[in-house]
Amino acid sequence: MAKKKVEKPKGKFTRRQLSQWQRQKRRQRIILSIGISVIAVVVGLVTAGIYYGWYLAEYKPLKQTVIEVNDTKFNMDYFIQALKFQAGGQPGQYMLFLIDSVVEKIQQRELIRQGALELGITISDKEVNDELKNHDLPHNQAVSDIVRVELLLDKLREEYFEPQVPLSTEQRHIMAMFLESEAQVAEAKDRLEAGEEFSEIAGELSLDSLTKENNGDLGWRPQGVLGKLLVTSLLDDYAFSSEVGVISQPLYDEEKAKSLGYWLIRVLERKEGSDEAHVQAMLLASEEEAQSIKARLDDGEDFDQLASSHSQLPGSSEDKGDLGWLTPGSMSQAVSDFVFASETELNMVSGIISDEEATTTGGYWLFEVLGSDTRELADEDRNSLVDQARDDWLASLMDDPENKVISYLDDEMRAFAVSKAQAG
Are residues 186 and 73 located together in one domain of the fold? Predict the structure, then answer.
């Protein structure tokens, strides 16, 4: 009789099968563990790379020092805050033009803060925060520093500069007029000697607006005020060293601007069928000078050379007075009247053309001191002297060679700052 085959119960494993199965499971776990580890490393490397790229491209530049003022350092983030605030929402192209100004103002403000600290004058954080809140200004370090220095300047004025200016001081009663040439000075002197009043002549001839409007009478003034009143540094010292009651010698002032000039013009070409004209010109400071130059041209001297050496038009030394192609209304009325007149011929040099729309520099002061006395300062003059004391102090800070003032901004950093300021 055949032997029956005994079947193994279903769902059960032999020891050998179980051992193989357990070894296989262990291998799968190891492989899975290694895979997870590899993925984790890869993900970590990618994440680290992204972070490191962000750190290099975004975070690190913001912390880079771009300006130093003695021991104080300002980073890129601070500079962007200042640039954005000063730009006031203007586009990036405008910001590029502002950068040098922003750098200078950061440097100035820090020098003021340090200088005020040496004088024992400070502003508290509470005062700054109150001002920011009252004017609804951004609460960042750059704007806070702007506000702090404005408050410092007010406090410096009240506590430090005002006490330096006395309530009374020596003053002089001064008459003055500004004339265009020695010939005009001689004319004015002849009229004075003939008995005409200084005030009458100054009201008629002076080319300085203040002395013309006031008929030459500048009133009683302390030393140090005339420079701001007349926009010239020349007259003050002379007036306070002159004798009372004596008409001064003419005092030449090469930097004083006036609304008067004299043209010599020639038209080089015209475009057919249009009102365009190619023009060359020179602008001269006085009628006397214009007469001299016109005589030299009439004697055959070269227009180009005379324009290069004598004209007050910007760039004349390089372009020889070439104004390019003009149309009616593109220059003053006096110029247009000659250039576009039907009788004006090509290459014909104009007569002397007087033009009150033109601005030239140079002229002669004539003045007289009517009196000298110690008097109480008018508020206007005392404020001017206080302002001058402050301005002198500020200039001394900027000019002090002991101050270490450095900007590290290059073109790449400037572009980065503008892009960040635009992005907000």
Answer: no
Residue labelled with tokens 């030239």: 360
Q: What is the distance in angstroms between the CA of the first residue and the CA of the last residue of the chain?
A: 99
3-class SS of residue 162: helix
Cα 293 vs. chain centroid, distance in angstroms?
Answer: 36
Tokens of 31: 């492989």
Task: Please state, in angstroms and as integers, the Cα–Cα distance from residue 32 to each residue in 25, 29, 44, 199, 305, following that order.
Answer: 10, 5, 18, 105, 91
Domains held by the chain: number: 4
DSSP state of 402: T
- pTM comes to 0.74
> Sign of the CA dihedral 216, 220, 226, 229?
negative
Q: Taking residues 325-337, what's their average pLDDT? A: 95
* pLDDT band, very low/low/confident/very high, at 37 (cuts 50, 70, 90): low
The dihedrals phi and psi of 10, each to the nearest 5 degrees, come to -70, 145
Q: What is the CATH number of the domain that holds 272?
A: 3.10.50.40
- Is 363 within 8 Å of 255 (Cβ atoms)? no
Judge whether 196 and 175 are in contact, CB under 8 Å.
no
Does 376 score more than 80 pLDDT?
yes
Query: Would 323 be classed as within a structural domain?
Result: yes
Pairing status of strand 168-179 against strand 261-270: unpaired
Residue among 69, 64, 109 at smallest CA distance from 85: 109
CA distances from 114 to 109, 121, 141, 148, 379 (A): 9, 10, 16, 12, 30
Residue with tokens 């007010």: 154
Asked whether residue 349 falls in the same domain as residue 300, the answer is: yes
Residue 7 maps to a domain: no
